[in-house]
Design a protein that fits this description.
Blueprint: E1 21-23, E2 26-28, E3 37-40, E4 47-51, H1 58-74, H2 78-94, H3 96-104, H4 110-134, E5 141-148, E6 156-163, E7 168-171, H5 179-191, E8 195-198, H6 204-216, E9 225-227, E10 244-248, H7 251-258, H8 261-264, E11 269-273, E12 278-282, H9 291-305, E13 315-321, H10 325-339, H11 358-373, E14 376-380, E15 388-389, E16 395-396, E17 407-411, E18 428-434, H12 437-445, E19 450-456, H13 460-470, E20 474-480, E21 499-500, E22 511-512, H14 515-519, E23 522-529, H15 531-538, E24 548-551, E25 576-579, E26 583-584, H16 587-597, H17 602-605, H18 607-612, H19 623-634, E27 642-653, E28 662-674, E29 680-691, E30 696-707, H20 711-716
Parallel strand pairs: 7-8, 7-10, 8-9, 10-11, 12-13, 12-19, 13-18, 17-18, 19-20, 24-25
Antiparallel strand pairs: 1-2, 3-4, 5-6, 6-23, 14-17, 15-16, 21-22, 25-28, 26-28, 27-30, 28-29, 29-30
Amino acid sequence: MTTQTAHEAPPAARRAPIVPSYVEDAWWTPSDDSRTTDVLDANTGEPVARFGSQGLDLAAMVAHARGTGQEELGKLTLHERALKLKELAMFLNERRQQLYEVSFGTGATKIDSMVDIDGGIGVLFTFSSKGRRELPNSNVVLDGPAEPLSKDGSFVGTHVYTRIPGVAAQINAFNFPVWGMLEKFAPAFIAGVPTIVKPATPTGHLTEACVRLMVDSGILPAGSLQLISGSARELLDVMDYRDMLSFTGSASTANSLKSHPNVIDGGVRFTAETDSLNAAILGPDAEPGTPEFDAFVKAVVTEMTVKAGQKCTAIRRTIVPKGREQAVVDAVSARIAQRVVVGDPRGEGTTMGALASLDQLRDVRGAVEAMLAAGGELAYGTLDAPVVRTAGGDDAVVPAGAFMSPLVLTWDDVDAEAVHSQEAFGPVTSVLGYEDVNDAVRLAARGAGSLVATVCTNDPETARALTVGIAGHHGRVHILNRETARSSTGHGSPVPHLVHGGPGRAGGGEELGGIRSVKHHMQRTALQGSPNLLTAVTGVWHAGADRVIAGSEAFGADPSNTHPFRKSLAELRVGDAFASDLRRVDLEDILAFAETTGDTFYAHTDAKAAEANPFFPGQVAHGYLLVSWAAGLFVEPAPGPVLANYGLENLRFITPVAAGDSVRVTLTAKKITPRVTDEYGEVAWDAVLHNQDGEIVANYDVLTLVEKEDTTYKNWA
């Protein structure tokens, strides 16, 4: 990625309005005589905005986030915050056309804006859904089972996630002013951590327009979102170990931020996504005329032209079998000539817009000139100002616009340093030939760490060899063939479910990845203590903690206690339990189950063969017979607040049960998760089957849906 510099200020009479910051829940604008940076329409060169932050109190912003922001977000559970993300996504979705109008001035076409704006809104929807499905409705996330730390079980340990107590600051690149903000904001918000956004100046007015909508929605708690429009060079000076900084931009800027004393010594959590010389590898089997060859060419052209190639995930190096370079160049060139119309996105028929600024145009042209001087040859396109489609639909050269022709370079020396180290952050790709699969892996690795690579092949062995060979150098591998050509989200499209980031040159950071990214904004802490106190802290019952047991007095229950299946969520508590009586298992039961189900595995039906099996003491009961009987032992059959059993988790069979043995079950309310939007919630029950000697036969979790209030039983009665 390249760093943007300020334009020279246009005459005062033509000066655009100053873009405000959002500070301590109010809009703030510097004085009009402050030093400002001007932003021009990327297509016409007309002034559209000015940025300045002189006089902005960054320390007050951080303090407000740590104080008001943390307090207000902490009043909500993980599920409640996730639900607010859905509300926010719906609000923005209805108003996204307002953002499109601003986006056109950044050089983005309608499709580019969809990737940025609709993609960002989609991230909110996805994280809202995953947050409510995969996280507890609380503010403590249990991580893994408890570890016994004493022989008698009185001292145990586990891990939990809780939100970091500071602010999540984000410094973003110019190419995705909406998506880049929302993909960082969403997981931080669910975690309960307030955000300070610092967008790149060339497109920061689009970020400001989105933040304004978010604020106007009234959905966000006070202090949960603030915006810096302009410079924020001193931001790290006022951050400490409680805080997190996520950066997207150039490697040089990332290295400068990483060397800040508050990162090195002060403990500020820092993650970066930086330069990336991504590759696409055409498999040896993907010859011209195959679906793979066509899909490969389409992917290369798409990545060259979407956002005018200004994507950290764009294909910079097109790696193809030696001898097939010209065929690929010809096919890519033909597709560009047929399908790509460069121009103002507001013009009819435009498919590729301008670069974000004239500074960006100079940077990209300079990078290409350096690559040509280092041995690259221009196989398609021109460095001259192209004829472009104007907003009025005419074709002309527009000197004030940041327009550039798509360029394809070839290299006689595929190991030239420049092609593996110089990033032209625009509509530029280089075609390189490889000798064999191992050579393709070697060339891809020359990028010294990348965000993504595409492997295009229909041969399973080639797919395996290339993927395994390059995976350690990439954050994501996109495998493309005829089966995914239509359904794939594409080489350059990170999805919120999967990790976005990469090693080495790509910055070594990690974003997205589903709930992983929520946990990036949380502290993993080891807990040690008694089962009772760990239960109290986590909200999840731990073995050995106190229980209120109904059922059989012979196995520790008080018969006067109410069966937990008769309790709604309003009455049910973690630790409420039921203990059954024993039920004898006879050979006739085992054989009947085998005949009814068709499971006639010899250990259940053939005495001689079962005796020869080293795992079984003769004929034994089916595990699923025992689980079925367990349900019969613990179920309270009358209608009541338990609405449905929707699954089992973590089922393990421990001790075989032979004919003549007996089994009993103890069921304990382990975790209770009310749903914010429904009249019921989930309850996970710890189920343990014992035999007549007290040995554990099986253990698992039973999952049920339970009403918040017991209306079912009352209506039935």
